Structures are given as C-alpha cells and as structure tokens.
Inverse folding.
C-alpha cells in the first residue's frame, strides 16, 4: 500500500472551494486529461453514488469513482477502481477566517507497483494530484478575488 497526500490553501471560502471542487464539469480546467464524466448511479456526491470518469492521458481508461462519504463543504471520500488499481481517497475543506480555506487530500493506493505508460502508479497519482490541486487552488483564488472586487 502507498499513502499520498497534498494540501493547498486558497483565498476562497469553504463554500466557494466546495462549489468549485464539486462541479465535475470544470475538472478539465485542473488537469486536461478527462473525456466523459457522468454519474452512473445515485445523486451526485451522495454516499453510494457512482461517477464514471473517462481518462485519456497517460492511457485511456475509465475510472469507477464510488462516493463513500460526503459532508458537502467539509469532507468527501471515495474509492476508485481502474487498471487493477484501487485507490481510497479523502478531501477535507477547513476554513481559516480571514485566510481562506485549506484543502487537504490524502489517500491509499492498493496494488501499488502497477505500471501505467511505463511509470509507477504512485508517480502518476502523485504528479496528477499536485497538478490538479494547484490548478484548482488558482481557479478558487481567481473567483474569490473577483467576488471581493
């Protein structure tokens, strides 16, 4: 098993950060790797709901994303399955008055050591997570600044 984690602090409120995060239609802004994303079962972000995520890069696959727990604007957890890899991940949103929101993600990869496009799954997930959350932070910051202007 391999544990990863990453944290960003955005100028956005916790509600705004959640609104940006939970809008899966925006995810290509954060990492331009997605094809189709659609909720196959349940209502979006409810425990037990399933989001199918078509990934185009570094290899084409569909990730089955099952929500295990969701407390909107506080915490969300899911389990992903794809390419023989299982990933359990959490994201928390912690508002710091006057300073913005700390968004922290962490997860465990089961069946680590799998190669994806010649790279370890650990490397692929770590780099993807850094890219996604830094771009997410920038989008949240832009919206927060626009709301205060």
């Amino acid at each position: 098993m391999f544990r990863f984690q990453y944290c960003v602090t955005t100028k956005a409120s916790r509600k705004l950060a959640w609104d940006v995060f939970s809008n899966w239609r925006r995810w290509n802004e954060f990492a331009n790797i997605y094809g189709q994303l659609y909720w196959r079962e349940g209502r979006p972000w409810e425990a037990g709901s399933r989001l199918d995520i078509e990934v185009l890069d570094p290899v084409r696959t569909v990730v089955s994303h099952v929500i295990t727990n969701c407390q909107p604007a506080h915490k969300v957890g899911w389990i992903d399955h794809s390419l023989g890899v299982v990933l359990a991940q959490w994201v928390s949103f912690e508002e710091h008055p006057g300073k913005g929101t700390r968004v922290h993600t962490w997860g465990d990869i089961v069946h680590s050591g799998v190669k994806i496009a010649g790279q370890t799954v650990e490397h692929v997930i770590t780099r993807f997570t850094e890219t996604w959350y830094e771009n997410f932070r920038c989008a949240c910051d832009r919206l927060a600044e626009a709301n205060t202007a």
Q: What stands out?
A: The first helix runs from residue 14 to 22. The mean pLDDT is 95. The domain at 2-148 is CATH 3.30.530.20 (Alpha-D-Glucose-1,6-Bisphosphate; Chain A, domain 4).
